[in-house]
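Forum: Protein Structure Q&A
Topic: Joint prediction for protein chains with partners

I've read a bunch of threads here and the consensus seems to be that you should model interacting components together rather than docking separate models afterwards. I'd like to see that in practice. Below is the full input, 510 residues plus whatever partners are listed. Could one of the regulars post the assembled result?
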Amino acid sequence: MLSNIRVILINTFHPGNIGSTARAMKNMGIRNLYLVDPQDFPNEQALTMAAGAKDIVEQAVITSTLAEAIADCSFVIGTSARDRTHSLPQMNARECGERVITESQSHPVALVFGRETMGLHNDEIQQCNAHTYISAHPDYPVLNLAAAVQTICYEIYMAHQIQAEQPYKSNSNQKEKTYPNTQQMEYFYQHLETTLRNIGFLIKQHPGNTMLKLKRLFNRARPERQELSILRGVLSTIDKLAESTKKESTKKEEH
Amino acid sequence: MLSNIRVILINTFHPGNIGSTARAMKNMGIRNLYLVDPQDFPNEQALTMAAGAKDIVEQAVITSTLAEAIADCSFVIGTSARDRTHSLPQMNARECGERVITESQSHPVALVFGRETMGLHNDEIQQCNAHTYISAHPDYPVLNLAAAVQTICYEIYMAHQIQAEQPYKSNSNQKEKTYPNTQQMEYFYQHLETTLRNIGFLIKQHPGNTMLKLKRLFNRARPERQELSILRGVLSTIDKLAESTKKESTKKEEH
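Posted by a regular:
Agreed with the consensus. Here's the joint model:
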């Protein structure tokens, strides 16, 4: 299960934080580190702070966008301070640990951590299926990046240990659903956008943020694999209809 | 409750770890930092790493020994890797969080963190009433000092939040016992040693480690305040007996 979990750091400023993150991960048995557009990497400071987790730093996967880093994941969790304004399902770190252990039994799961100063941008949050926050004192709720990674990974490891001690209980709770990965969702969104353009719902000259809102909705709903097939089937049916309507109107024009 | 909790760092090598510890504490609402014989403090690096918790660093209490730092505490918890060989009661970080919240309702509680490389020395562990460890992966279970403080303080804050949500349940579980503080235990040990010398059980020329073993036993047993009064009463009775026996034998010699 732990091998199906990855930690993604976006646009990290201090290379020392990359090293501290690697150490925090390895302490908790999590080994897959992805770095999206790191500002200063490779850097000796990352290896120094990693201490006994230099292997995690050296094997880190570098990507230029978050989309690449989560392409094969079926559950993506964004981390930031608690926020009641955005629309994703929210859970605290303890609930997150339990959820990650359940999900990672069947597919890759990503934990996404934003910049030291700014956290995650809106377009990054919208690529997530859920959001987690660490309960903290209101006087100063802003954890250091590596400290946040430590806390989340600790809760995952605790959930892992608790489940190992109660296999029967956990198995009975386990859901048998299978989910598409981010890449498959991306294909669906492309299909959706094409179809909506074909039928004139979206107008190329005035794209607006309709697609953004639809993506947000579907990410939140998190369709299962079978449900996504149905949605793709609906789109194909619309496509055919649009195609025949087009032919029909072309014929009429010819007459 | 949180104001009755202190974090004690012993002989810290990297001043940056002092700052990161202060931040981890403040994030979780814990404000009392004690530094026992820090190797490089004050130091700018501590303030840099503290970020929004510089006040915690600036108000830190410096002592030269652990005994001074815990003198007014009634429950002292040492932290290190899990170890089945030593004799203290052990609990994981989650159990520690719950225990600290219960204890801190009635008296000061200390969490003691050892050196970056060596942890706590045996004589320091023997000054503790209990021991806590953070569950970690056996491949690399050694957390960075500030990461360990973060995890323990997080569990304390979680226990605090959970209790705040369930006041009735927690109150009914709450124990009404009161415990002596470390200074009072120290007076008892001095009394015990004096008495044991007076009656010839301990011989000044061959002190051995009998007192050490007795201290370990009583720290583990953790007498309540009333029980300690009884023990002090026993010692006083023995003292009087020893005194009168001495007078008696002096009289006999005079005859």
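Chain A has two domains: 2-173, 182-254.
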